[in-house]
Amino acid sequence: MSAGGGTKAILAALAANAGIAVAKFGGFLFTGSSSMLAEAVHSVADTSNQGLLLLGQKTSQRKPTPEHPFGYGRDRYFYSFVVALLLFSLGSVFALYEGIHKIQHPEPLHAAWVAVVILLIAIGLETFSFITAIRESKAIKGELTWWQFIRQAKTPELPVVLLEDFGALIGLVLALGGVGLTVLTGDPVWDGIGTACIGVLLGAIAIVLIVETKSLLIGEGATREVLDEIVGQLESERVEKVIHIRTQYLGPDELLIAAKIGISPSLSVAEVAAEIDGAEARVRAKVPAARLIYLEPDLARGRTATA
């Protein structure tokens, strides 16, 4: 996926969350619902997060410099990691604090129907954003399950938006449940319970994102399927075996490959150079992300390829 991959999903989420945040804050001021306040802060966090994802896409396209000879592709991983931290600190921690406070000191709601209307509208907008993210993701998900896609995707923005939108929808349902139970029972403690549940949900999603984006940030190699494809393309009649190989993603669309290949000893220097060029061309034809390939010719001595 290109550097702008997932931009449509990000923009859809940005527009939806910005509008929802304004409506939720209005609903909180009108009703005093802590669930509405927690959801409003959640939407502000999500809006900021989408802005950071767009910033990461832009800065990652900077040209390489002497200080950063491999470019800035990992900016997208860095900003996705920041998004996960913000979701945890600004969304989860605040919702937990507000929920516990309202459980300990419940306050009655005013005009709860306003909160219900706003939450129903927000569910509609978040559903639109979520469907957009799903459509964008299907192009690269392939046969993976959604959980496998989130765990294995090298493009960070779409998993982030998918989990954010999923969390937002569940959070809205929890907020709606908290407000609804408060109205039905007349006990405002349910509003606080709904808020605390939103905090737990956001915390769980944030932890998943932190773990996954941290792994990308410090450097992930090619998956076993991609690695097998690379090794298969490197080996030929004149390349007896791949002695060892290392791969690492410098960005979602840029894979670094370094390998030592066993060359037939009967080849001349010119033939070795031609075989290396051919091996690089074969790999790039099958693995477009393989932008940087460094091959070291050697004689095979019974060693096997390692990842």
Describe the structure.
The protein has helices spanning 7-31, 34-59, 75-104, 112-141, 146-152, 157-185, 189-218, 224-234, 269-286, and strands at residues 239-251, 254-263, 292-298. By secondary structure, the protein is mostly helical. The chain folds into two domains: 7-218, Alpha-lytic protease prodomain-like (Up-down Bundle), CATH 1.20.1510.10; 224-298, Alpha-Beta Plaits (2-Layer Sandwich), CATH 3.30.70.1350. The protein is elongated. InterPro entries: Cation_efflux, Cation_efflux_CTD_sf, Cation_efflux_TM, Cation_efflux_TMD_sf, SLC30A9. One of its GO terms (molecular function) is monoatomic cation transmembrane transporter activity. The chain crosses the membrane at residues 77-97, 109-134, 166-185, 192-211.
